[in-house]
Amino acid sequence: MSKRIAIVEDEAAIRENYADVLRSQGYQVQTYANRASATQAFNLRLPNLVILDIGLDDEYDGGFTLCQQLRNLSATLPIIFLTARDNDFDTVSGLRIGADDYLTKDISLPHLTARISALFRREDALKKPIDTDHILNTGDLTIDSQRMTITWQQKTIDLTVTEFWLVHALAKHPGHVKNRNQLMTDSKIYVDDSTITSHIKRIRKKFLSLDDNFDCIETVYGMGYRWNTH
Amino acid sequence: MSSFKLRFGLRAKLLLLSSFLFIIPWFGYQYVWEMEKYLRYGQEQTLVGTARALATALHERPNLFNNQASFLPSVEQGKDLYGYQLKEAIQLDGLIHDWPTKEHSQHYYGNDNILFSKSNNLDGNLAASLNFTASLGKYDKYLYLFFKVNDNHTIFRGANARSITHNDHMQLSFINNRGQFRRFIVSNKQAGWLSAFELIPSEQANKDTLIPQPMIQGHWLLTPTGYNIEMRIPLKAVGDKIAFAFNDVDEENGEVLSQIGSANPQSASTLGTILVPSPEIERIVNGMRHTNSSIWVVDHHHRVLASAGSLKTASGFWQSSKISEQPLISSKYWQQFKNSVLLPLYYKILTKPPTDFIDKLYDAQHLTGDHIVSALSGHAKSQWRLTTDQQALVLSAAYPIFINNNVKGAVIVEETTNGIRTLRNQALEKLFTIILAIMLLGALTFVFFASRITSRIRQLSSQAEQAIDEHGRIKSDIAISKTNDEIGDLSRSFARAIKRLQQYNHYLENMSARLSHELRTPIAVVKTSLENLSLQQNQASENLYIERAQTGINTLNEILSNMSEATRLEQMLVNTEKSAVDIIKLIQGCCQGYQHIYPKHHIELVTDNSLPDDCTITGSAEHIVQLLDKVVGNAVEFSEDNKVTVTVSLKGKYIVMQIINNGIHLPEQMLTSLFDSMVSIRPNKKQTQPHLGLGLYIARLICQFHLGEIRADNNYQPDGVTITISLPIAKQ
Q: Which chain B residues have any C-beta within 8 angstroms of a chain A C-beta?
């Protein structure tokens, strides 16, 4: 039973390119050129994963609207924003609305497919019993790399895929400074420095909302970040 | 702007224009002159009117003129005499000093006036050993006579002589008011009081009786050259005909050698005439005295019959009608100021009419002048003349007096123009004061107005200057002026232009972001297509091209990220919250990091001893790191000896970082624009990385965000470049 992926993208060439790649990977792909046709289809039946562009035809924020509608239909449906808009504001908005990942269009296709399979993996892993092999424990932090879940002081932290991989890359070797490039390759994202910074900021905020005293992610000026265990 | 060329600003121009105000005083002055002309004309008419009125009073009154010798067709000097109006009483002492010493008031009688002589001179003409000068005058009720006789031998009457004619004696004859012919002889036995005798004619010839006549009083005074006789006769005894003669005797009891006189005193028909100013006419004339004029009445021989008033007080009708002294400002200080400052200034231009002037044109007896000649020929005439000392202007009008259609005399009325001049001066004073006030006020208004306009334009220009900084970036809007005039319009159009420029600048600044955004999609299309191609194709040769295309696309991608980096940074900085950052720790950490990143280079950190232990600034640590990354990255790239020095010190309230590398200098003109967007001074060699010159621009943005400064300087020995970053430390 192959996964069904829906791509909502107004630029036909890109849409079809992505669709071709994903099809060659063995996914079933449905493509939609605008919000109306996509909404119609999603109301009938939800796919297993949705890839959205933000600007759809003449709707500047059509993707955001669609994302909200989808989140109302399903809380668990993996949603990826794949867009040309790489500014901070849009990234934050997209993730806040409930997307699982926010990728810019300059991501390479292998990266894209890796992110997609990671999302599916997490979805599948959540349904499986916990296998301790994949569990990493450092202090109060527990990482399950199969189910792609992270808990802090036994409380689950809701992280996006990108955030998960960033935390994973940092916590794998506590005390080691990871510079931005290392973090990017580890977490399979391709963004510029400031995006990494804002990702780290968001991760800190998520931990702090559970634990006011959280200070494990240390900024080492000029070098990168380091996970400290106490 | 700061050129030393002489600027001819708006204010100067307006002041120049306002100098046309100076036409006003000129115009006023002209007007007053014009007015004066009319006043003079009016005065002339008034004067002629006065003369006419007086003449009218004298017309057809022959009795006024009858007893004067007016019927004579002509008068003969010396024979027809005139009695001056004397100004002061005469003391009968034989001395001349109390007589007016006017030349023409004395008449000389010499050889031309010989009535009888026994001797001849060389020419065969009659000669006399005697001559004299005579003066006549009238004072009160007397006619005074003064004779200065030059005689080589003064012979008095013998003490016991019976004859009164065998010595030096004087004969005097006149016709009295009742028309009787009377003869007198003055013959003294000694100097002193005169002995006068009247000859009473009898039926028999040469049997005239002599009776002493006390009516004739006087004094006989001996002088070195002869003798003086001063005498008086009551006026009522004298008619209008008179003659006097001196008989010269040169030896005791001798015969009369010669006789010199004004006319033959022997008979009534040979007498000359005498004219004394007529009291009747004087009375009529005196009635006109209040006219502020000097009035003369002359007979047709130009001899004065009566006069009244003096030219010195005759300043005309206007004298009495002075401008009512209602001062504009009745303040003591104003009066003081006016008297001490304004009036002296005015009278540099104006002339005060002289209160003292001398006019010797007329003697008291005989008036001359065209106007009189014209009047005596029957035509009234007025004329302007200067006094003989050129001090005052005199207006004279003459009007004929007719008796039986014959001109028997003329009335001459004279006035100076002093009244008018005073009036004019007063008018001009007032005018000048008002004009000064107007000009002062006008000039002040002009200056104020000009200053106001200039300052507004200056303000506008400085606003326009400030709106755009030296890099051509728009810093601030121009405050839109609400004034509804041209300068307001200018300000508004400036504001509009600046706004449009700002919009355009904004558009340009966003251009890179938009461009990168717009290009992303087609690049993504190419990129994904290539990737699909490479996934599907397995032939190495084609893969080579695909790889090359992918390299190109990746480079393009990088360019796009760089392009949007600055824009995104600007947007991010707006939303970034500042927090306390330990700057020293941050720099130390960064430098360690750089040592890792650039293993081939030696990154040296020099911290100043003066630095306190904790140096915090308020800002965003990530961005300061980003800033250091850019600057150090540049320094490493341009370093020629693989050495970069970072120094940190505290200067006042600023923490100062200097990143020094040795290498090529920056071009001087680039030092300031180095931190602008899209400026790159890299040599055009093949670059491994695409470069848009945004690195240092981003550095500047971050510095500005932290209220700091960034500067580039060349340094020497060894050559290199220093980038100086100063950031304000947080207030404790």
A: 513, 517, 520-521, 523-525, 527-529, 531-532, 535-536, 557, 560-561, 564-565, 567-569, 571-572, 575, 585-587, 589-594, 596, 621-622, 625-626, 628-629
pLDDT at B360: 62
* CA distance linking residue B279 with residue B63, whole number of Å: 12
**Backbone angles phi and psi of B669, in degrees to 5:** -70, -10
Q: Is the distance from CB of B350 to CB of B371 less than 8 angstroms? A: no
- Tracing tokens 């919250």 back to the chain, one arrives at B577
**How near does any CA of chain B get to the CA of A27, in Å?**
15
Tokens representing B601 are: 């280079």
Closest-CA distance, B621 to chain A, in angstroms, reads 8
Return d(Cα B28, Cα B33) in angstroms, integer: 9
Query: What's the whole-number mean pLDDT along residues A109-119?
Result: 84
Nearest CA in chain B to A21: B532
Give the tokens for residue A78: 């993996």
Model confidence pLDDT, tens digit, residues B416-471:
877 777 877 888 888 888 888 888 888 788 888 888 888 888 888 888 888 877 66
| Domain covering A4-126 assigned CATH 1.20.1070.10 in the classification | no
Q: DSSP letter at B340?
A: I
Name which of B300, B250, B237, B255 is nearest B165 in CA terms. B255
Distance between CA atoms of residues B13 and B15, nearest Å: 5
pLDDT tens per residue across span B679-724: 666 655 545 555 556 778 888 889 988 989 898 888 888 888 899 9
Q: In the 8-state DSSP scheme, what is residue B415?
A: E
Nearest Cβ partner for A223 among B531, B567, B596 = B596
In angstroms, the CA B345 to CA B352 distance is 13
Closest by Cα among B419, B367, B370 to B392 = B419
Is the CB of residue B629 less than 8 Å from the CB of residue B604?
Answer: no
Question: Could you give all domains of chain B from N- to C-terminal order, each with its CATH number?
Answer: 24-65+281-425 (3.30.450.20), 75-277 (2.60.40.1190), 486-570 (1.10.287), 576-728 (3.30.565.10)
CB atoms inside a 10 Å sphere around CB B492 = 15
* Beta strand B720-728 pairing with A4-8: unpaired
Q: CA-to-CA distance for B556 and B548, rounded, in angstroms?
A: 12
What three-state secondary structure class fits B616? strand
Q: A135-227 adopts what CATH topology?
A: Arc Repressor Mutant, subunit A (1.10.10)
- State the Cα–Cα distance between residues B162 and B144, nearest whole angstrom: 29
